Structures are given as structure tokens and as C-alpha cells.
């Protein structure tokens, strides 16, 4: 499902969705626009080029279809469905992604949030499926060749690798396992040098990575690793730096579920990654059903 808001972010979102659909080959793609109030002022309708002779929902649907048409047409490998709904965008994205049982929600990520859009962190916490955030100033729309996978070697790291393999194949693209580590607090007082601690920390990180790879024995993963020390205790900064130096086309990160809190715990690092303004799409991977209880309660209140 793709969230369209008739903003400057739509162009990059549609181009990227088209590229990703050609690689992943979904059976159906929903394009949804949520309008807070369908009683739209005439001057706004006119500025958007919407036919004022038609009811607002019909006119907006026509505008949505025209916006999608240059990129997608039914019959080109997947079914295309456009839909206009009334309501607050955040709640509507939650509602319709749940109702449609979507596997992936794609939204544009504005360079500067103006308070009118859906904040990435808020949506990523609550929605019951994986998400892709596409920067509005993205310039590269070539097929994905390199994916950076932030690694702490946990179950969410495995979820990220498994999803990448499922979507793109074992050997079709390069996977880069990225691990950022910090020196232990108070290391300066031990009498050991920074270089000595760095060597030991890196050695342990490499050992964890090798152990992690043992879970993929028999697979032909095209995967390499990169390790960086985080002197500023800002792992998100290091991860995005690694994404840039490796030429990654996409950052994929797994989220760990916590259904008893009616949300998915992204972790502070993932939250901060979503707040970056780099021209790199972010793919947040979630296992469906983890926030189902919360969603069911929310929709019963509608």
C-alpha cells in the first residue's frame, strides 16, 4: 500500500515504488489518499486542478488516478487500486493497511516535516506491517544493488536478512552487515589504550558476525561486513555514515515486537535513523500481527 498526499514527496515515492514493484513483483498495489475533510474549499480544488463540478471524493479519486497513471497501469504484472478516504492520515494509514492486510506500506519522507504529514517514527511504531520511507529529495531510482543491514546479531537482525533474501533472492544483491560498537565506559582509567580496546571490541564483533552467519550454512549469501567504532555514542550517525561509504541503496532494519505495549519497540537507534535527512530509503521490517490487539481495539472505537 502506498500513501499519496498530493505533496512534493509523491514523485520520488511513486518512482521508487515502481522500481521496487518491478523487483519484488507484488500481486496488488493500493494507492490511498486520506483527506481530513472532504468538504474542500473551492480555491484549494482549483489550485490542485481538481474538477469542481464533481463531488470532492470523486474529483480527488480522479486526481489520484492521474497522479499514479504515469508509473503504474493494471495489467503490467500487478493489480492497481486507487482509493480516497476521509479522516486523519495517520489513523487512516493504520486502518486501511490493516483492513487490506498489506505486507508493506510505503510513504514519502519529507525533508522538513511541517506538522501536516505522518511522522515516520509515529507510523513505524503503530502500523501492523513493514514500511518503507522514501525521501522526497531522492535522486537515485536504479534497481537496488546494495542493502545495508544494521546488525546487533539478534532476532531482529535475522529478520532483516531473511526479508532481504525473500524479496530479492540470495545472491541477486549485495548485503552489507553493519555493526557499530562503543568502547566501555571508563576505559580511559584502565591503563589500556584506545587502540587496544578497539582491537578487542572489533574482534568480538567479528566473532559474533561469524557465529551469526553459521545460521545460514548452505545458503549462498552475497554478504560482507563493516565495523565502525562509535566514539560519540550515536550509533545511528555511524550507521548512516556506513550506508553512504558503502554506496547502499537501501537501509533495512528489523523491529522487535512488544504487543503488550500496543506498539512495536523500534529502539532508539532505529528511531534516530528514521529522523535522518540522508537521501537513502529506510525499510523497517516487522512481523505482521505483533500489534494486532491494539489495532483491533482502535478500530472498534471508530
Explained architecture:
37% of the residues lie in helices and 22% in strands. The protein is of the alpha/beta class. It has 2 domains: 2-139, Rossmann fold; 146-293, Rossmann fold. The strands form 3 sheets. Strands 4-5-12-9-6-7-8 form a 7-stranded mixed sheet, with helices on both faces. It has a 3-stranded parallel sheet with strand order 1-2-3, sandwiched between helices. The chain has a two-stranded antiparallel sheet with strand order 10-11. Helix 6 links the parallel strand 6 and strand 7 (174-181). It starts with a strand and ends with a helix. The model is unreliable at 258-265 and 291-302 (pLDDT under 50).
Q: What is the molecular shape? A: elongated
Query: Structural class of the helices, strands and pairings?
Result: alpha/beta
Number of domains: 2
Helix % is 25-40%
Distance between the termini: 21 Å
Number of helices: 10
Our Rg estimate from Cα atoms comes to 21 Å
The proportion of strand residues reads 15-25%
Which CATH first-tier class of the largest domain would you pick?
Alpha Beta
CATH superfamily of the largest domain: HUPs
Strand order of the largest sheet: 4-5-12-9-6-7-8
Number of strands: 12
Unreliable stretches: 258-265, 291-302
SSE ordering: EHEHHEHEHEEHEHEHEEEHEH
CATH-level-2 architecture of the largest domain: 3-Layer(aba) Sandwich
Amino acid at each position: 500500500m502506498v500513501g499519496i498526499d498530493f505533496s512534493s514527496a509523491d514523485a520520488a515515492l511513486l518512482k521508487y515504488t515502481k522500481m521496487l514493484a518491478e523487483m519484488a513483483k507484488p500481486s496488488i498495489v493500493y494507492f490511498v489518499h486520506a483527506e481530513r475533510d472532504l468538504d474542500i474549499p473551492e480555491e484549494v480544488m482549483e489550485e490542485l486542478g481538481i474538477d469542481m463540478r464533481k463531488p470532492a471524493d470523486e474529483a480527488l479519486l480522479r486526481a489520484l488516478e492521474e497522479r499514479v497513471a504515469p508509473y503504474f497501469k493494471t495489467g503490467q504484472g500487478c493489480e492497481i487500486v486507487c482509493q480516497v478516504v476521509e479522516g486523519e492520515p495517520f489513523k487512516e494509514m493504520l486502518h486501511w493497511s490493516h483492513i487490506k492486510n498489506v505486507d508493506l506500506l510505503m510513504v514519502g519522507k519529507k525533508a522538513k516535516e511541517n506538522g501536516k504529514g505522518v511522522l515516520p517514527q509515529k507510523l513505524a511504531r503503530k502500523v501492523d506491517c513493514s514500511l518503507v520511507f522514501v525521501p522526497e529529495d531522492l535522486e537515485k531510482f536504479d534497481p537496488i544493488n546494495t542493502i545495508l543491514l544494521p546488525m546487533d546479531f539478534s532476532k531482529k537482525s535475522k529478520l532483516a536478512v531473511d526479508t532481504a533474501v525473500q524479496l530479492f533472492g540470495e545472491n541477486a544483491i549485495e548485503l552489507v552487515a553493519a555493526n557499530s560498537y562503543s568502547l566501555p565506559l571508563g576505559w580511559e582509567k584502565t591503563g589500556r589504550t584506545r587502540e587496544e580496546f578497539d582491537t578487542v571490541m572489533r574482534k568480538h564483533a567479528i566473532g559474533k558476525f561469524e557465529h551469526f552467519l553459521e545460521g545460514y550454512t548452505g545458503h549462498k549469501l552475497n554478504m560482507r561486513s563493516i565495523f565502525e567504532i562509535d566514539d560519540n555514542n550515536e550509533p545511528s550517525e555511524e550507521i548512516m555514515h556506513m550506508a553512504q561509504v558503502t554506496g547502499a541503496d537501501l537501509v533495512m532494519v528489523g523491529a522487535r515486537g512488544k504487543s503488550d505495549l500496543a506498539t512495536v519497540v523500534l529502539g532508539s537507534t532505529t528511531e534516530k535513523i528514521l529522523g535522518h535527512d540522508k537521501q537513502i530509503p529506510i525499510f523497517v521490517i516487522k512481523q505482521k500481527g505483533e500489534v494486532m490487539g491494539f489495532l483491533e481495539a482502535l478500530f472498534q472505537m471508530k
